[in-house]
């Protein structure tokens, strides 16, 4: 099955309040890049964390993973005053061996690139069987974590020179003012863009070992970034592509965890539309 996943810049209906200079660990708020300032401005509350690598452990819950998958990296950080350890398993089937990237340039020509990243992980919170996560580790840790009845996001913060200075952790419910609106057809809904993460109850996420040859289904993805995505990342093709595959990794984490009809997603190609010429 072939599916097109079209990624566009969601219109945000929120208005930014006047923000006074804030001190966060290791860096002044004013020294953050514009995109990260915008993120912090629209969060009601957040926590600054500093993840560190820690010693990986053997799989605590073997039935949670497909046969042959092992924890290859573990990270830890303080969250709400308690140490949280994340055990990460590489999602090696996310990007197809046939994967290609195609970019449409302002002059009408196209550019092709081969696969460039292999930093996509699934996993769980250590010692918490009813948990799951999907993280990208290419430039810091970026993704979501679910445990018990809590879902939260983690992503890196960069200064104006693209130097990573910290990570921020926040809940989807703390994002203020966002509305889901498709810029192509004007459709708007009061539903948060992140509500889909809560449509898969954690008690359904416990995987049972299955016959890989007969039961796992694959959906091939074509990732399409429109011009607004390219502009959002200041013309950075690498960042635009990385975000697209990271979203596919999150979707794959939820769908592959389904008990009745597990589905794995595999990215076959990524397309990006560069800004139009003068």
Automatic annotation (TrEMBL):
InterPro entries documented for this protein: Peptidase_M12B_N (IPR002870)
Peptidase M12B propeptide domain segment(s): 77-126
Pfam families: Pep_M12B_propep (PF01562)
Keyword list, A-Z: Disulfide bond
Protein name: Peptidase M12B propeptide domain-containing protein
């Amino acid at each position: 099955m072939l599916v097109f996943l079209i990624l566009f810049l969601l219109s945000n209906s929120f208005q930014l309040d006047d923000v006074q200079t804030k001190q966060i660990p290791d860096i002044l708020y004013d020294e953050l890049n514009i995109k990260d300032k915008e993120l912090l401005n629209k969060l009601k509350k957040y926590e600054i964390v500093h993840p560190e690598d820690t010693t990986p452990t053997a799989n605590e819950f073997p039935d949670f993973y497909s046969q042959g998958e092992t924890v290859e990296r573990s990270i830890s950080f303080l969250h709400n005053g308690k140490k949280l350890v994340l055990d990460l398993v590489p999602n090696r089937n996310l990007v197809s061996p046939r994967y290609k990237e195609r970019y449409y340039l302002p002059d009408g020509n196209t550019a092709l690139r081969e696969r460039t990243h292999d930093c996509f992980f699934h996993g769980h919170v250590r010692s918490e069987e009813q948990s799951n996560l999907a993280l990208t580790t290419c430039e810091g840790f970026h993704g979501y974590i679910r445990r018990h009845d809590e879902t939260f996001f983690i992503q890196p913060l960069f200064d104006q020179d693209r130097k990573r200075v910290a990570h921020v952790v926040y809940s989807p419910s703390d994002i203020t003012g966002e509305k889901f609106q498709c810029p192509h057809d004007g459709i708007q809904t009061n539903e948060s863009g992140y509500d889909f993460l809560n449509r898969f109850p954690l008690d359904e996420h416990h995987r049972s070992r299955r016959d890989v040859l007969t039961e796992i289904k694959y959906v091939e993805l074509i990732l399409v970034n429109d011009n607004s995505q390219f502009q959002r990342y200041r013309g950075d093709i690498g960042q635009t592509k990385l975000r697209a595959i990271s979203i596919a990794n999150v979707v794959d984490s939820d769908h592959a965890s389904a008990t009745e009809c597990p589905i794995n997603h595999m990215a076959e190609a990524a397309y990006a539309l560069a800004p139009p010429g003068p």
